[in-house]
Predict the structure.
Amino acid sequence: MSDAEDAILKQSAVGAFGFDKPSNVGVAVSGGSDSMATLHLLAVVAGEAGWALSAVTVDHGLRQAAAEEAALVARACAKLNVPHETLHWQRTQTTGNLQDQARRARYGLIADWARRREISHVALGHTADDQAETFLMNLARGSGIDGLAGMRHRWSDDGITWSRPFLLQGRADLREYLNRRGIGWVDDPSNDDTKFQRVKARKALAALAPLGIDAQVISGVTVNLSSVRQALAMQTHEIARQIAKCDGGDVVFDWRGQRAAPPEVQRRLLIAALRWVSGAVHPPRETGLIAADIAITRKKNHTLAGCRILTSDSDVRVTREARAVRDTRAKPGEAWDDRWIVTGPLKRATVAPLGADGLRQCPDWRETGRPRASLLASPAVWRGEKLIAAPLAGLENGWKVTLQPGRADFFATLLSH
């Protein structure tokens, strides 16, 4: 690798966050070559860019060697004078997609770490190879434009800007950078385990190389598709501003406006509303979306992804499904259903869904203009069997309910997902 190529890597690190001027930057480091190169390159440019750099490692507790790998990262950070912290995943689930669970846990832990340390920007060490593998995996799933556009270079979520500075560079480039400087890394043995889809995609990528289909080519395709995705997101956002509103935690679309939108925009609006209301990480299956679309066309109510879709002659309302929150409990001031914060004059009370029994004790609920199905799933304050307050149903008694701080505005999610 030449000095000119080194300069390109450094420039990618400098431009990781676009025109932002962050003061505190974090970097996620696993100990693998990609993240170790990201750490060292960011350390080089941090002083010039005026960043205070910190590093974090997540130990998922899935391999015995993970603790030593975290220690290796800690030693590397100490040499660079970069503060480092190791986070531990306290796994509770025992079934399902373990890799997906670990990924979501990792992002959640890193986000909490960043907020705790007042770090506004976090860098991740993904490369063009990761992008190509992701493309092939999503292609195998029959993904649409969102999946085939691959991983995003930069996005914001709950007040944190995430970046992948080297998504256009190959893994070999980063490894050569490390080799020239005598910097070591660790290889995760799971990277060779063919039971994982990513490893299968990696082998498929090698098989496609003789056709001229390599990581750089596929990465270029994802850049083009990403531009298409961005254009769709902008169009969806513009249409949403014209036909949608938020009411009491629900998303309400004008029926005629929603039906007049292009089919792909209709689909995106519905997915965004379902995810925003339910807090779901992934969109519903395509079969479920098709069934919901048919119900909306016929002006029929429908249930999907923990939400109720209420359709009338004038509008389409996406609200929380009462059954999905029937066992959800929290204390005042805590997040209820991971979205509502209820505060008031009492500490010894319980936040639980209003339900049918509670709604009967709210004489003015019809004056709120919100449908019965929506209010049944709304947060209410209880002391034992006694209803104290239900702010969204018009029974306040000194209590207030607000969306959880840091939860993105619905319209903002149309541009960030």
User: Anything to note?
Assistant: Residues 119 and 258 are 39 Å apart (CA to CA). The mean pLDDT is 91. The domain at 248-320 is CATH 3.30.465 (Uridine Diphospho-n-acetylenolpyruvylglucosamine Reductase; domain 3).
